Amino acid sequence: MNNFSGNIPDQLSNLTNLEKLDLSxxxxxxxxxxxxxxxxxxxxxSVADNNLQGSIPTGGQFDTFPISxxxxxxxxxxxxxxxxxxxxxxxxxxxxxxxxxxxxxIIGLIIGICFGVGFTLTMLTLWILSKRRILPRGxxxxxxxxxxxxxxxxxxxxxxxxxxxxVIVFPNNTDDIKNLTxxxxxKATDNFNQANIIGCGGxxxxxxxxxxxxxxLAVKKLSGDMGLxxxxxxxxxxxxxxxxxxxxxxxxGYCVHDGCRLLMYSYMENxxxxxxxxxxxxxxxxxxxxxxxxxxxxxxxxLAYMHQVCEPHIVHxxxxxxxxxxxxxxxxxxxxxxxxxxxxxxxxxxxxxxxxTLGYIPPEYGQAWIATLRGDMYSFGVVxxxxxxGKRPMELxxxxxxxxxxxxxxQMRNEGKQDEVFxxxxxxxxxxxxxxxxxxxxxxxxxxxxxxxxTITEVVNWLQNIGANGQPPKLD
Length: 476
What we know:
receptor, 15% strand, kinase, phosphoprotein, 11 helices, ATP binding
C-alpha cells in the first residue's frame, strides 16, 4: 500500500517491458486505462482494494489475470468478474436503449447474411482447389485433391483445413519438393515404417523421408489428444513460418491428411546434440571443444533471432539438447516449436500448464506458470552446462546433491572446484580458460532470480568474445 490516489496514469502503457504492476490497496479512482492491455510482458497485475469503476480492459494479458486482481472496488465490471457492464442510459433520450437494441438486431442480421455468403464462397473455393493444381508459375491444370502448393510473395498461409489431404509447400523452398503429394510422403517414409523413426516427442514421432530424387526430409507425425495436437500443429507452423534463420530448423511444409497432422522439415544429418552427448557410443568423444563452442554459438544465434529480431518475438519454452539439431557440418539448428508462443497482442505468454522438460524448467515456471524470454535463457544455460560437463541435466539415480546438474555445478564452484566439472574428454587439451569463460556465462543464465539473467543479446556477444581479447563478465 502506497496511499496513491487519483486516476491510473495512461503513460504506464509506454513501459513496454513491464512484467509486474501491483497497485492494490490504494485510493485510486476512475477507470483502468484500456491502453494497459498493450503491456504484452505483463505477467502480474492487481488493482484490488481501490475505488475503481468502469469496464476492465480485454485482450492481451488482461484475459489471463484472475478475479482477485480486481476485487473490492467501487464498480468494476467485465467478463473476468462474471459481471457484464450494463449500457449507460441516455437521460436526454429515454428510448435510446430500445434504439440500440434494434440497431444490434439489424447488425446481427447483416453479420448473419455475410457469414452465409462467406461460408458459401469458402466451400466453393475449396471445391475449385480440389479440382485444380496451382503451379508455381501461376498456370493451372486438373489434379487430384492430394496436391496444392503456393508460390506467392504475399506471405505464408497458416489457415488449417480439417480432413482435406493438402500438402502445403512453402514458397521459399527448393524445387526438389514443390508439388509434393501425400502419396509421395507415404512412399518416402515406407508408410511411416518404424525403421524410419529418428526422433520422438510428447506429441508424436519424427520419421526420415527419402524422396525419389534423393532429397531427405524429417516428417513429424502428430498424434494424441486432438485438442493438444491441433494446438501444437498451429503453434509450430505459425512460429516456423514467421522465423526464417540459418540456425533455426527450416519448416518445408505441412499437411492435413485423414485427421492426421504432418510437419516437414529439412533433414539434419547428425541428429540432435542430446544424441551425441548422451546416446551415441563415443559420440561425446567426437565433439571436441571447438565443435562444442561452435554449437553453443550457433544455438545462441538462432535463439537471438527468435527473441530479438523476428516479429513478433517468440518464446520457445522447451530449449534442450534434444531440440538442438546438427547438420552434416555440426552447425546447430534450434528445433521443435510445439510449445512456443508468439508474443502478440492477442497471445499470452502466461500458460495454464507446466511445460518444458525436467531439468531444463526454470524455477519460476513451477511457481507462477509464466513463460518468458528469461525462462528460455535458463534452459539455454543448462544446455551450455551439458556441453561443458557431458552430463545430463537430471540424473535421478545419483545422490541428491549431484542429481541436478545446475545444483551440482553451483556447489562445485562454491567449493573452488570449478575445473572438476568439465568433461574429462575436454581436459588437458589447452582450452581450460575458454571453458571457464563459457561456464561463467552458463551460470549467469541459470541464476535463480530471473531478473538477474542476461538477455540473449548479451550472451551472443560474450560467446563471440570467448577465446578473443575480450572476456565474459565474471559472476558476483
